[in-house]
């Protein structure tokens, strides 16, 4: 009876979602920009790191800026790269990873009138600062001996600063993937607290959700996620870790997206793909979400999300305290040598979602199907309409955030910013600047929300920011 009821709800609400999709207008592209340099130089960040990683790449390489993106206030944004330049061939036994120190960047971006351009606004991103992430307590690093590589300990470590690293062997093999003292971190999304003093970062390795000081980069807190998110046996490569586990997140497809509600009270994290156990139960389209109460640090809900036509999810942002925008995509496009097909933003309403805690995979998928879902933005379609061919649309459009409102033709326009993860391969195949860090800005009005209400998050500025 319960299964039948869930499936009936799924059919009814799916029909409603289709109707909403057909009736809803779409946002428009209003600006785009690239970030290729800083005051430190061409594709150099502001970390101050002046050494070379074990794979031969500079430790201050500026790349991957679209893994995660969040708006703070004024013209300030924060961006987080992932585990570093592992697209460079180095050592397959450790997934070609290096001891790249995890970090986030502070970027200044302002929409300016563009009277002579094809788009109404222009944006010229400027890197303002780079903040390295560390823990006060010692972390577990790999010594590299078994793989014929140097130690995974970052050379800048000190007695009170143990930096997080992208190296896949930086973990304690005696513990499960929920060990918060593992040094390895593959950051994928970033959000800022309402008071402006801390950031929340989601990770694929654990998966983890960590809280860091925005000012210093020190880890403040680690949130415990549902046990079915973790793997029991960690390893250094995707294939070996997948083979060693029968449950938990798929390697390199852990906690991909992270949202914070406008009231600043809850975090919503979403896995990139189905867990190992859900995929084994033939529920490959089922992605799990954890809702975290920030004050208590507890997971208060677990919800499901069903993929429509993408291969996974890259980010999630809060439209208001119960509705969210989810970034669903394929892996095709610029940087992959193929043609982009699916880069879509969907709107969902978790106020009407069914908690899937303790459910079987089949029941969880049926429950997830009942969550209202409608298309908000077909990115490929809009970019094509603006003269950007599908082969030039980045494969990894991963970072999504709302920005400040602008005025256009006497109307208030809300903005949504989308950024790419270029895998630190901005120059390849002998072509300079062929895959830069890019930002696409879309404008939308209240009428585009099909009855939903946009509630922006208000983040306090630092006192010296004015």
From TrEMBL:
Residue ranges annotated for the Phytase-like domain, each copy included: 62-424
PANTHER family linked to this entry = BLR7070 PROTEIN (PTHR37957), PHYTASE-LIKE DOMAIN-CONTAINING PROTEIN (PTHR37957:SF1)
Source species: Koribacter versatilis (strain Ellin345)
Q: What's the short name of a Pfam family annotated to this entry?
A: Phytase-like
Keywords (alphabetical) are: Signal
In Swiss-Prot or TrEMBL terms, this protein is called: Phytase-like domain-containing protein
Q: Which residues form the signal peptide?
A: 1-25
The domain of life for this entry's organism is: Bacteria
Database matches in InterPro entries: Phytase-like_dom
